[in-house]
Amino acid sequence: MNLATIDIIIILCYICITLLFGFYVSKKASKDMKSYFLGGNEIPWYYLGLSNASGMFDISGTMWAVTAMFVYGLKSAWLPWIWPVWNQVFIMVFLAAWLRRSNVMTGAQWITYRFGTDLGARLSHIIVTVFAIISTLGFIAYFFEGIGKFATIFFPWDLSFNIGSILISSEQAYALIIIVITTLYTLKGGMYSVVGTEVIQFVIMTISCLVIGYIAFTSVTAEQITTAVPGNWKDLFFGMDLDLDWTGYIDSVNSKIEEDGFSLFGFLFMMMIFKGIFASLAGPVPSYDMQRILSTKNEAEASKMSGLTIVVLSIPRYLMITGFAILGLVYLGPELQEGTGIDFETILPLAIQRFVPVGLKGLLLAGLLAAFMGTFAAFINAAPAYLVNDIYKKYIKPDATSKTYIRFSYLSSILIVIIGLIFGFFASSINTLTIWLTSALYGGYAAANMLKWIWWRFNSYGYFGGMLAGLIAASVVPGFFPETSDIYLFPIVLFISFVGCFLGVFIGKPDDMEVLKNFYKTTKPWGFWKPVYKELKKEDSTFKANNDFWKDTFNCVIGIVWQMTFVLIPIYLLIKEYYQLSIVVVLMIITTVILKQTWYNKIKK
Length: 605
Prior knowledge:
The chain is mostly helical and 605 residues long. The chain contains 24 helices and two strands.
C-alpha cells in the first residue's frame, strides 16, 4: 500500500520533533545519574502518569488486544488479566507509596535497602539485575515482532537485504530502522526525553483513539455486528468452556482459539486470578513502571500517578481496540472467511489501511509509532540503570565521574538493544511472547518479590534462591510442555520459585536487625513483622504498625471493579449495548465515590 504524501509528511514531522526534543533536553538529563534516570525527581506526577499510560499503550500490545477483541468478543475484556493489568490497582492503593519511600534509583539498589550488604544481599542484587536485563531483552523481542508486522503493511518499499547467507526481511528491516531512531532520542535525553515525548505521544494517541471510535460508531450498526459474530460474542460472562463457535462466520477463528489454548476459559480465568494475586503483591517489575514511581517527588504523588495511569489509559485505548475490531468483523469478515493462512495479528494494520481516511491515517500511524517508541524508550531507559548503577558503579568504578556513568549508560543501552533484536529475529508470534513474558518469566519473579514485603524472616539468601529458581524454571519448564500455553505452567514455575525461597531462608541466617528495622520503619508495610516491630517499639514507644491490610484489600477489590468499568464503557458504547453501558457507568460512579472516601482522602492526609 502507498501512503498519501500528507500522511508521510505527518509521520516524518513527528519523528523529527521527537529526535529534536531528545537532543534539546540532553544537557539537562546529563547533569548526573539521578537526572538521567529519574528526571531529578522534579517531574510532576500528572506528567509521569500520562507518560506511564503512554508507555503501556504499545503497538504490539494493541495489535494483540485488537486480535483478542476480534476473536473473543466481550470476554477479551478479561484477557489483560493475564499480565495482570490490575497490578496497577495494587500499586495505586499501597505499593507505590511503599516503593517510593525507599528513595533509591533502581529495583536492584532497593535490594541493599531491604537486605543489607552481606554476601546474600550482593547475590540478590546481581540476580535482580539479571532479571531486569532478561525481561528487557524479552520485551525488545516482543516490540520487534509487533512493529515489523505493522510497518510492512503501510510502507511500500521493499527493504529486504542479505548479510552473507542471512536474509533480513523487509519486516525486520523496518523494525530495525524504527528501533534505531527510538534508541537515539532516548540515549540523548534520558528520563526527561522519555517523559516529554510520551506526553506528546499520549495527546496524539488520544486524538487518534477518539477519531477511530467516531469512525466505528458512525460506520457500523448494532445489527451489522450481530450478523457478523456468533451469538455469545457479546456476552461478558462465561462458564468453564468458552462456547464460542465461529463456524459459518470465519471458520479459521476456531483454529486460532485452539492454538491460543483458551478453550477452557473458566479454567483460564481461575489461573489469571491465581497468578494475578501473587504477581500484583510482588509489585512492579524492575522496568519502566518502577522507574516512574521512583521518579515522583514523594509517596503521595507516586500513588496519584498510578491512579491517573488507570483512568487515562483504558477508555481511549479501548475506543481504538473496539473500533478496529468491529470494523474488521463487519467489513473484513467475509474476505477472511474466504481466505486461508490468515495472520490474525495483522487485523489492526489491515483495518487502518482499509477504514482510516487520508490525513487522519498519517496522524494515527504517527500515534501508533509514538506508542511503540514510547514503550520501547521506557524499557531502554530503565534497563541501563541496572547495569550502570548496580554493576558498573557498585562493583567496577565507584568513584567515576557523572559523565563517565552517562557514557557507560549509552553503551549499555546500545548493547541491550542489539541483543534484544537478535532474540526478536527468532520470535514466533506476538501472542507467544506475550504469554511467556507474563506467565513463565513473571512466575519466576512473583514468589520472592511478594515475600520481601510481608515477612521479616525472608532473608537475602531466600530472595536469591527464589529468583534464581524462578528464572531457571521460566526458561526450562515450557520446554517440557511444548503444547501447553505458558499461563497454565505458572503454578509449576511459582512452586519451584517458592522452593528456592524457603531453601534460601532456612540455609541462611536472618538478616541484620538494624537493616530490617530501617526498612520496616521507613517503608511501613503490613505483614508478618512482629519481632522487628517489638524492637522498634523498645526504641520508640509511639511507633505504630501498619494495620491497613483489610482496608487495602477492600480498596484493591473495589479498584479492580473500578478499573474494569473504564474498559467496558467504550466497548459497550461502540457495540451499541446501551442498557449494559448504563449499568457500567453507574458502577463506575459508585466505585469512584468509594475510592474517593477510602483511598484518595487518605493520600491527601
